Structures are given as C-alpha cells and as structure tokens.
Amino acid sequence: MTTFESDIKKATYPAEKMFNFLSDFDHFGEVIPKDKINNWQSFGDSCRFSIDPVGEVGLRIVDTEAPKMIKFTAEGKTPFNFFLWIQLKEMAEDDTRVKLTIKADMNPMIKMVASKPIKKFLEVLSDAIANHQY
C-alpha cells in the first residue's frame, strides 16, 4: 500500500460540526473544489466523480469515529483500491486540525502517473475542508 498524507490544516470550527457536515456526501459536495473534479454525484453515504488523470472515482463511507475520523473506501469502477481518511482533532472550540490520508493499492505504473495528482488533490481538498464555512 502506498500512503499519501496532506499537511495538517487549521479550521476555525468545532470538530463535531465539521464531522456531521463531512460525513454526509450531500453536504460534502459543497467542499469539493468544482474546478478540480467533474461529474459529481452524491448518494448520502457514497459519491462518484471524475478527476484527471486518475479517472472516475467512487467513495463510500466504511467507518466513522465521531467527531474524530471518517474513513472512505473506493467503490465501483476505480483504477485502484484505496482508503481515504479525514482526521479531525479539536484543539479548542474554534480550532480543529484537519489531516487527510490516502492508502492506495497501486501497481508501479499507476503510482508513477497518479502520485502527483493524488498529493495535489489531498492538499486542495484539505484546504477546502479547513476553509469551508460550516
């Protein structure tokens, strides 16, 4: 498994408020940067979207630990299997730290092509989560 991690970001909202928002893909779509993905579809506990050059990606929530962690897995026709974690650590009521991690099962060819876009996607998404108005 290959691991990708975002930098730790600071959000100015309580972890519980962020967790409740992010654990529902109907809301999560508001956080996704529209210029980075295409064809967003939400189904409550799962979603689908396209991201270049990776292709179509599906996510489904497989585990949660309120208000600290949401774990997603690949769903449907994806180029590789992976898990995505959103980790929230509340330091104070108006200070929650956000970190995203992806663990992916990639062959060397896919890893070479997808590593840079995945790392960039994690940074863009973690920035969007940290800066969203909840």
UniProtKB/TrEMBL annotation:
Q: Which SUPFAM superfamilies match?
A: Bet v1-like (SSF55961)
Recorded protein name is SRPBCC family protein
Q: Which organism is it from?
A: Carboxylicivirga mesophila
